[in-house]
Write a structure and sequence with these properties.
300 residues; 12 helices; 77% helix
């Protein structure tokens, strides 16, 4: 959670900087630096630079020709430094953290096999293990602790999962859609429950999959989510009148980008990066409701 707090802080700092973009070298260098720091905290930030550059192109217009190259050079330079550092240390040039490859495999491979090829959980696990072992033998991977080999294994897991998705497109779409819906259900008590229940890591099933927990908390979470989304929608509609259209588009597409990049995990805490941007609309929604309430009191 410490890492996520830093990630959110960089998001907020970038949002503040982009309210009034500048064409100065220092400003654009800082923007490129923050974008790279966002990526260093979470791999989801790797393509976020496209959203930022598109916004600056709309806002600065011709002046963006000078600004965008500074941001790109700063961002790419930091990626190169990371890649070269990894190459000197491990003999492999890479800047993308390996957890992303593992996460796709972990969250999607077994569900796709179970639903797409009608396997049980144990059958799907055996299939994955067998295919992985076969690949290791073919590629002569013996020492899994060697970083170079670990990276190869992670890349295989990602490509393996992508092939499963392409071979089972409808099943994959259903699974990802269902996980996206789960991600959108906010849990106001998640942190408390995590620290309270997660002490027993050996418990099967885990606390969040117990029927008693789901039956009690799911209606509460759905109601809470609907209230939050209703205020956000009100805020979005009202913001059109007084929030700069280009900045509005930046916030909207930033929230969509973060959701698309993380929603396939199926965990509501991965919706937090989107909530950072939606919080602006939530504030606008609360402001709208307060003004309406104040207006009615004065009329009465």
């Amino acid at each position: 959670y410490h890492t996520e707090s830093i990630f959110f802080s960089f998001q907020i700092l970038l949002m503040a900087l982009l309210i009034s973009p500048s064409k100065s070298f220092l400003y654009n260098f800082v923007v490129g630096l923050i974008l790279s720091l966002i990526f260093l905290q979470k791999t989801v930030g790797i393509l976020y630079i496209i959203i930022v550059i598109s916004y600056l192109a709309l806002f600065l217009k011709k002046d963006s020709i000078k600004s965008i190259p500074i941001i790109l050079v700063t961002f790419i330079s930091i990626l190169m430094i990371i890649g070269i550092s990894n190459f000197k240390r491990a003999g492999v040039f890479y800047f993308m953290p390996t957890q992303g490859n593992e996460a796709v495999y972990h969250y999607l491979a077994i569900p796709i096999l179970m639903k797409g090829q009608k396997m049980t959980g144990s059958e799907a696990t055996k299939r994955l293990n067998a295919d992985l072992e076969e690949w290791k033998i073919e590629n002569k991977i013996k020492d899994e602790q060697l970083e170079k080999n670990r990276i190869q294994i992670m890349k295989f897991k990602k490509s393996y999962t992508v092939k499963l998705m392409l071979n089972n497109p409808l099943t994959s779409l259903k699974i990802i859609t269902w996980k996206a819906l789960q991600t959108g259900i906010l849990n106001p008590a998640y942190i408390f429950h995590y620290h309270y229940y997660e002490q027993d890591i050996q418990k099967k099933p885990p606390w969040y999959l117990e029927k008693s927990y789901i039956n009690f908390w799911m209606p509460i979470n759905i109601f809470y989510s609907l209230v939050i989304y209703l205020v956000v929608i009100l805020g979005f509609v009202s913001s059109i009148k007084y929030l700069d259209l280009k900045y509005n588009l930046f916030l909207f597409f930033s929230a969509i980008y973060m959701f698309v990049m993380l929603s396939w995990v199926g965990n509501s805490r991965y919706f937090s990066p989107s909530l950072i941007y939606l919080s602006v609309y939530f504030g606008c929604g609360i402001n709208f409701l307060i003004k309406k309430s104040f207006y009615k009191k004065n009329v009465n």
